[in-house]
Design a protein that fits this description.
With 222 residues, this protein is mostly helical. It has nine helices and two strands, in the order H-H-H-H-H-E-E-H-H-H-H. A two-stranded antiparallel ribbon has the order 1-2.
Length: 222
């Protein structure tokens, strides 16, 4: 197997891609909270884009770390005027995004979708008690697109960015649509192939997403 990117880190410095994937994806699932995170992900991705309004709220809760607690209590950030982008997620719940009528989930559809949703705004408090309107952003919009597309388009966030940097696959720091579609998606599926994953298996690609997020968090903290 050709090793085309750098995956070494600490005690796994010389790991081949499949071993790297196994180590970091398992490390991601080392807590009860993350295992619950993974369970919710699986329940949503198995719907293959056929999502209800309630599902879109659950996607928002999942993305923002606001899943209902084990005792049934509501998460304190899941409400308006918090960093959780509650207003936009509720818009997705009221008016669920739709798949294209012809079922053609191509880059053009993805580009238009990401443009529309990343530019939506929500109210968030800032210093001095003021409230400012903040962009929904590409990370959240790509999360919506990921579930709507049944996993075809991967989720892009800062942790993934840090992971790619550690692999010497550099992307612009500012998260914009063009690098996402033309660079990140290519890198993601190239890494998946190098790790021996089937690009048509969402359960396998989820392992890569988990590994990248865990790997990127370690890199960001150093």
């Amino acid at each position: 197997m050709k090793k085309f990117f750098k995956v070494g880190y600490y005690e796994w410095d010389n790991a081949q891609p499949p071993v790297w994937l196994q180590k970091w994806s398992e490390l991601f699932l080392s807590s009860d909270e993350r295992r619950e995170d993974d369970r919710v992900y699986e329940s949503l991705i198995q719907k293959k884009g056929k999502l209800s309004g309630e599902d879109f709220e659950q996607i928002g809760r999942w993305k923002e770390g606001c899943l209902l607690k084990g005792d049934g209590k509501e998460h304190g950030r899941w409400k308006p005027k918090t960093p959780a982008a509650y207003d936009v997620w509720m818009e997705a719940k009221r008016n669920p995004p739709l798949l294209p009528p012809d079922g053609n989930l191509d880059d053009k559809f993805a580009e238009n979708f990401l443009k529309e949703w990343s530019e939506k705004r929500f109210a968030m408090p800032s210093k001095g008690g003021k409230v400012r309107n903040v962009r929904f952003g590409l990370s959240r919009a790509s999360t919506l697109l990921h579930f709507l597309s049944g996993g075809r388009f991967p989720i892009y966030d800062s942790l993934v960015w840090y992971a790619l940097r550690r692999m010497t696959l550099r992307l612009p720091w500012e998260m914009t649509i063009d690098p996402y579609l033309k660079q990140f998606c290519h890198h993601f599926y190239s890494i998946a192939s190098s790790c021996g994953l089937d690009k048509n298996r969402t359960d396998e690609l989820r392992k890569l997403d988990n590994a990248l997020r865990c790997y990127g968090k370690r890199e960001r903290c150093d």
